[in-house]
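Extended Data, panel c. Modelled sequence:
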Amino acid sequence: MTQHRESQGGDLGTPHASAAPSAGARHVAWPAAVALTSIAPLAGCGGGGGDKAPAPAPTDDPQVLAGTTALLPEEDAARFLGQAALSAPMADVTRLVNGGLNYSAWLDEQFAKPARTDTALALNGRTAYQLALDQGVLVLDATGQNFAHIGGDFGLDSALWFRLITSDDVLRQRIVLALSEIFVVSQRNMPIPWGHMACLAYWDLLEQHCFGTFRELIEAITLSPAMGTYLSLRGSQKADAGGRRPDENFARELLQLFTIGLVRLDDGGQPAGGETYGIQDVTELARALTGWDFDRPAPPSYTLGTLPDYTRRPMVLVADRHDDDAKAFLGLTLPAGAGGAQDLKAALDGICAHPNVAPFFARQLIQRLVSSNPEPVHVQRVTRVFRDTGGDLKAVIRAVLMDPLARRSLSGTAAVRRSKLREPMLRFVQWARLVQLRSSDNRWSVGDLSASDRLGQSPLRSPSVFNFFRPGYVPLNSGVSADGFVAPEFQITNESTVIGYANFMLTHMAGSPQQGLVVDYSEWLPWVADPTRLVDRLNLQLTGRALAAASVDLITRAVRSLPATSAEQQLRRVQMAFYLMLVSPDYLVQR
């Protein structure tokens, strides 16, 4: 990447209604009524909601076991890539088909992709932190007295979108994105110098540990400066006579959101009766985690004396701030005088050994990759692998994706049960990769897309530690709630975000050349004279041919209605086909 040239509103996340498009990239100007025809059924689905976990259907429910649909090899391959990767390029689909659909070998290949370093020659071989440095994050302001970007978010979005749109380690990126929504930190609450660099360092940390063990991952997250800031573990100290108490924020979320959850679970991830912890457990755990702070001799400040390197080093123990008395929580007892490092180790060892950890994590990972309503037997099998391997995340990921319940394509009610709403971030990245979105000036000015008139989502931009949506969210007064399902992604699906997403994609189907963001539809132009083949190819690569026949027919007729005489008209046909697919309810639901 070249040095970033910052400008006001200079990214894809900022509307450019007054900007005149270049001749080579005219905005697609289809009537909104036509463009939105295919998304109307979703417009009213997102209002209200709760976190009530529905009673699961029995695992021998005939609606679950029946309805298997035979797929062509290319459909099977595209469907697998829809779960395990970020898109389904035809070259990857063909390679999988020619290899006999050996998904295990594909996983091996992805697991073997090299880790990133600061010094890699290839841009995509460098850490996200280093990418921001490459863009010029350390430049001085106009006065020369301070860093221009010490308190902003310069380089954060560009590095993350660059990674998601161009990386070839697609499994790692898919898993890191999922983990970032389970173990949440967010730029929205990072009130430290270089907070955005702390977020990038956190992304790098997830990349480093996502194929390791769960226990290693949890310790790395715990000592991360980003997490220490976000959930205020950093600076938490032992109680004193003046009324100071250890901060309980991280201790609470470590239990509730990251490891064991609120209620006891069976191995299938279903409530088994009783709570997992109480208030006293949180209080005692918070005491065990006191004394950790940034690895630097003095507190960071918004001055030239503070460089961002501290944001990527694990926090260190300040011994005299740690509570050295005995603690007891979750049935564990930590003896007095063990020291802060040993207390942290013992606490995390004990938590990670809790029987809830495996099903709690397994269910959430299945939700992020495969289905909003994981079958208990699927969770149970992943739970078994988790325990048998000591939380080996490679084995857990393989178990999630290779399970028969993930690989079988279903129809009817069974297909509805085993589906999920595609997250807006994943829809955008899928489109961007298929049309080879690139940055002509190497700035990658995509920006923050989390506003409701854009995607309503952006990496590391969650509004709270509960992510953009809760895993148990149920849209009230909807068919989803009536059927006893959860639908996490519907928590950010409402009239505003549905229309916002549709309009955002409509506006940017030609890229955004004024921001240096260009797209290439040349791969799709050979089918422009045959709308049936064009739509079929898109249906394959975007959904594994999961669209209903009525939707395919509707989109095909709309595409055919456009003239295709000139090169510009042919391009518009392709863009129309892409757009109507991307806003179709059949596409929005991943099966």
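The chain is about 45% helix and 5% strand. This feature is highlighted in the accompanying rendering.
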